[in-house]
Specification:
The chain is an all-alpha fold. It contains nine helices and no strands.
Length: 236
C-alpha cells in the first residue's frame, strides 16, 4: 500500500523529524553565516570609508570579487580548495591520505563572505546618511570616540542599514540551499533524499519551499520589529 501524505510527514515513521532537523541546520548555517558577514561587512565598510588609498582598494577588491562571483563557485572554491590545502599540509607533516573540510564550517564561511560583501555596502551607505552635525556636536561636548560610537554612530547606522540587512538575510537564508552540493544535510538536500526514497518529489519539495517561506517570514517579522524599535526615538 502506498503511504499517505500524513504517513510520509509523520514524526515517528515518516520524514517529519529529519526535515525539521534539516531546517534547523539551514537556520543555523544562515544565522552563523549572516553574523560572520556582519563582522566582515563592518570591516569592509571601515576599509572603504578610509581616507587612505590602500585600505579603500582592499575593500573595493573584496566587494567587487565576492559580489561578482556566483555563490556556488565560492562554495566550491572554499570546500575543494580548503581540502587540498589541508591535505597537502597534513601529508607534509607525515599524515598521508585525503582530508576533507567540514561541510558546515565551509558553508558558514562561504555564506558569510558573500553576505559580508553585500553588508559592506549596506553599512557604508548607512554611515554616509548620518547627520554630521550630531557627530560634531557630540565631539564638541567632549564625548570620547567610543562613547560617540555607542551613543550616536552605531545606533543610527544600524537603523539606516537594517532594511538592506533584511534583504541580505533573506538572500543568505536561500543561499544555504547551495550547501547541499558539498554534502551538508540541510533542508533542500533532506527534501531530495525524502523525495527519492518515497518517489514523491512534488510533496517534499513543496514542503521544503513552505519551510523556507515560514523561516523567512518569521525572521523577517523580527527584523521589521527591530527596525520599528530603533526608529522610535526619531519619530517623537
Amino acid at each position: 500500500m502506498t503511504p499517505g501524505i500524513l504517513d510520509l510527514l509523520s514524526f515517528d515513521r515518516g520524514w517529519g523529524l529529519p526535515l525539521l532537523i534539516a531546517a534547523g541546520v539551514t537556520l543555523s548555517a544562515a544565522t552563523c553565516g549572516f553574523f560572520l558577514g556582519s563582522f566582515l561587512g563592518l570591516c569592509g565598510a571601515s576599509l572603504k570609508l578610509s581616507r587612505a588609498m590602500v585600505p579603500r582598494s582592499i575593500g573595493q577588491f573584496y566587494t567587487t570579487v565576492f559580489r561578482g562571483v556566483p555563490e556556488i563557485l565560492v562554495v566550491y572554491l572554499f570546500y575543494f580548495g580548503g581540502s587540498v590545502v589541508v591535505t597537502k599540509t597534513m601529508n607534509l607533516g607525515g599524515f598521508p591520505g585525503f582530508y576533507s573540510m567540514p561541510a558546515f564550517a565551509i558553508g558558514v564561511i562561504a555564506v558569510g563572505i558573500v553576505s559580508g560583501a553585500y553588508q559592506t555596502e549596506a553599512f557604508r551607505a548607512a554611515y554616509l546618511r548620518l547627520d554630521r552635525g550630531q557627530i560634531e556636536a557630540g565631539a564638541a561636548c567632549g564625548m570620547p570616540k567610543l562613547l560617540l560610537l555607542r551613543r550616536i554612530i552605531a545606533p543610527q547606522t544600524l537603523r539606516f542599514a537594517l532594511p538592506a540587512l533584511g534583504n541580505i538575510w533573506q538572500s543568505a537564508l536561500k543561499e544555504t540551499s547551495l550547501l547541499s552540493v558539498i554534502g551538508l544535510t540541510e533542508l533542500l538536500r533532506q527534501a531530495g533524499t525524502a523525495s527519492g526514497s518515497s518517489r514523491q518529489p512534488l510533496l517534499f519539495y513543496a514542503v521544503a519551499a513552505s519551510m523556507f517561506l515560514i523561516i523567512g517570514r518569521v525572521t523577517g517579522y523580527g527584523l521589521a520589529r527591530l527596525e520599528n524599535h530603533l526608529a522610535k526615538p526619531w519619530r517623537r
